[in-house]
């Protein structure tokens, strides 16, 4: 189940399957076969190799999370923190109304990534911009409480929010990307806000610390079948460079803002690895796609949560 448009664009081409046969969230089991085509693998394609009934519903690739075809992809294009409580309610309603979902016995994996649009086109218009932190705390708490109340047997991945200041560090950008970046991310790319950039970077850092604090609160770890884990592979994200020092834009879409299929393969690999790294010892950057691929072991065949790390 996807809960963010940036993730769903690349991660929703094939099924996200239910995880199998755990007794609680400290014992989430997964089995994996190494993807053959590493150039186009996405997180959904990885999870499609998890043992699971093939007739279970899943999210479909779509541009709008409110369409019927979206199924369990509740993400919306341009979504911000203020939108995630509504997305959460929509996702829960779809699951509760789907006759193929055994809400009490099926295990659910929900992945949430939010913040990029808040950083790029919202916080610079708030007075003061730090208000974004208070609003996000309220929204994220509402989302997690909805999931905890209505979705037993659920693991929630909160993917760290990206530091969009990385856009200012790209070298060799095509001219169309220079123009699009000002339109898509004025808070960091428009000259009128340049003097506030360091302030905005600190807000992003506080945003991610806030998400970690919320994910670790006792109220989200008091049930044996519900857990929340921050996956931080985006925290210190850097993009590969060409031999001449220019940014390798093969990992980016045409706007040099969203990821390409190759970029999604790399991020899918990083997210999967994060899920099998112990809490407190997770990677904060991505690597060459599929140069390192963590598999469950007989000693630890489960997705890592606070309870088993």
From TrEMBL:
Q: Which Gene3D superfamilies match?
A: SGNH hydrolase (3.40.50.1110)
The cross-references to InterPro entries, in alphabetical order and at most eight, read: GDSL, Phospholipase_B, PLB1, SGNH_hydro_sf
- Point out the signal peptide segment: none
Record region (Disordered):
18-43
Skewed-composition ranges (Polar residues): 18-27
Q: Which residues are listed as membrane-spanning?
A: none
Provide one Gene Ontology biological process annotation.
phospholipid metabolic process
Question: Which molecular function GO terms apply here?
Answer: phospholipase activity
Its protein name is Phospholipase b, plb1
Q: Which organism is it from?
A: Culex quinquefasciatus (Southern house mosquito)
Q: What is the lineage of its organism?
A: Eukaryota, Metazoa, Ecdysozoa, Arthropoda, Hexapoda
Gene name on record? 6050357
């Amino acid at each position: 189940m996807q809960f963010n448009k940036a993730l769903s664009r690349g991660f929703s081409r094939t099924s996200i399957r239910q995880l199998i046969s755990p007794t609680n969230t400290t014992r989430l089991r997964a089995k994996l076969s190494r993807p053959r085509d590493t150039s186009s693998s996405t997180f959904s394609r990885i999870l499609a190799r998890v043992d699971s009934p093939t007739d279970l519903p899943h999210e479909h690739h779509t541009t709008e999370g409110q369409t019927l075809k979206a199924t369990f992809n509740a993400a919306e294009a341009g979504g911000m923190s203020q939108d995630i409580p509504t997305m959460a309610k929509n996702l829960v309603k779809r699951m509760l109304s789907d006759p193929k979902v055994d809400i009490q016995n099926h295990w659910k994996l929900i992945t949430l990534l939010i913040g990029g649009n808040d950083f790029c086109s919202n916080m610079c218009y708030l007075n003061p911009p730090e208000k974004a932190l208070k609003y996000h705390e309220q929204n994220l708490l509402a989302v997690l409480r909805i999931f905890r109340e209505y979705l037993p047997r659920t693991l929630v991945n909160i993917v760290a929010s990206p530091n969009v200041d990385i856009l200012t560090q790209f070298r060799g950008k095509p001219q169309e990307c220079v123009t699009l970046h000002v339109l898509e991310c004025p808070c960091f790319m428009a000259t009128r806000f340049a003097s506030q950039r360091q302030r905005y970077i600190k807000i992003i850092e506080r945003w991610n610390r806030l998400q970690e604090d919320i994910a670790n609160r006792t109220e989200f770890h008091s049930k044996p079948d519900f857990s929340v884990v921050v996956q931080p592979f985006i925290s210190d994200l850097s993009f590969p460079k060409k031999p001449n020092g220019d940014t390798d834009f093969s990992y980016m879409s045409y706007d040099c803002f969203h990821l390409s299929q190759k970029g999604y393969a790399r991020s899918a690999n990083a997210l999967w690895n994060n899920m099998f790294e112990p809490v407190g010892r997770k990677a904060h950057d991505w690597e060459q796609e599929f140069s390192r691929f963590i598999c469950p072991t007989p000693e630890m065949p489960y997705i890592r949560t606070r309870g088993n790390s």
